[in-house]
Design brief:
The structure is a single chain. About 50% of the residues lie in helices and about 15% in strands. By secondary structure, the protein is an alpha/beta fold. β2, α2 (about 35-45) and β3 form a beta-alpha-beta unit. Residues about 70-80 have low confidence and may be disordered.
């Protein structure tokens, strides 16, 4: 598993070389651009699970399940808060 914060041809080429170089079947990558990264790797024949960075932050903050907050509760301001 790795974190990719830079997205350019050099990074894509490096990632694309890893499965063969290190004998791994699938990359697991967290990125600021997971869909673009997944498409770029797929174009090179690389199987990768690409996830958004927000998934890491949510998991770190909330654990396995992110609590659901009703939309009305997010925007309410009580007299005590105002």
């Amino acid at each position: 598993m790795l974190l990719v914060t830079r997205f350019d041809d050099e990074v894509i080429d490096t990632l694309a070389s890893w499965p063969q170089s290190y004998g791994i079947a699938r990359l697991v990558v967290f990125s600021t651009r997971p869909q673009s990264l997944a498409l770029a790797l797929a174009d090179r024949g690389i199987d990768a699970n690409c996830h958004a960075l927000s998934e890491i932050w949510d998991a770190a903050q909330y654990g396995a399940e992110k609590p659901s907050i009703p939309p009305s509760a997010e925007s309410e301001v009580t007299d005590a808060e105002a």
